[in-house]
Amino acid sequence: MALFQVQLGTGATEVFDPSADSAVTTLFLCNTHSSAVTVTLYLINGSGTPDDTNAIWKDISIASKDTFVMNNERIILAAADYIKGLASVASKVTVTGTYTTI
After folding, report:
1. What is the pLDDT of residues 40-75, one digit of tens each?
2. How many CB atoms lie within 10 A of CB 3?
3. Is 59 helix (H, G, I), strand (E, B) or coil?
4. Which member of 28, 45, 73, 101 lies 3.0 to 4.6 Å from 96 by CB, making a disulfide possible if both were Cys?
5. CB-based burial label for 18 (10 Å; 0-12, 13-18, 19+)
6. How many Å is the Cα radius of gyration of the chain?
7. In order of start, what are the domains of the chain with their CATH numbers?
8. How much helix, strand and coil, in percent to the nearest 5, is found in the chain?
9. Long-range contact set of residues 9-13: C-beta below 8 Å, sequence gap at least 24
């Protein structure tokens, strides 16, 4: 297992871009802001761009000082696929994830 981590911006921010076929095993989205923040994550196939057709979480509200966790499903990515995300407030949501190459 390996770790990736990034703070989301208000524009689509690269969260995970695998160098080989991979399985994302957990995602933690931690809001460090003093207010609730909304987050959208995109699972993008190959050369696509982030939009509503590939959103996997859309405007998820995370309360102040709270963490949203995804750990009961696996996201399988080919080397060309990637995850991007954005938040309503820049640099206040940290995405931490674990993955393994397959």
Report:
1. 999 999 889 999 999 999 999 999 999 999 988 899
2. 9
3. strand
4. 28
5. buried
6. 13
7. 2-101 (2.60.120.340)
8. 5, 55, 40
9. 9/86, 9/87, 9/90, 9/91, 10/86, 10/87, 10/88, 10/89, 10/90, 11/86, 12/42, 12/50, 12/84, 12/85, 12/86, 13/84, 13/85, 13/86
pTM greater than 0.85? yes
- DSSP, collapsed to helix, strand or coil, labels residue 6 as strand
Residue located via tokens 């689509």 = 12
101's enclosing H/E stretch is: strand 93-101
Measured at the CA of 6, the angle between CA 77 and CA 29, to 5 degrees, comes to 80
Is 97 within 8 Å of 26 (Cβ atoms)?
Answer: yes
Dig out the tokens for 39 from the structure.
């987050």
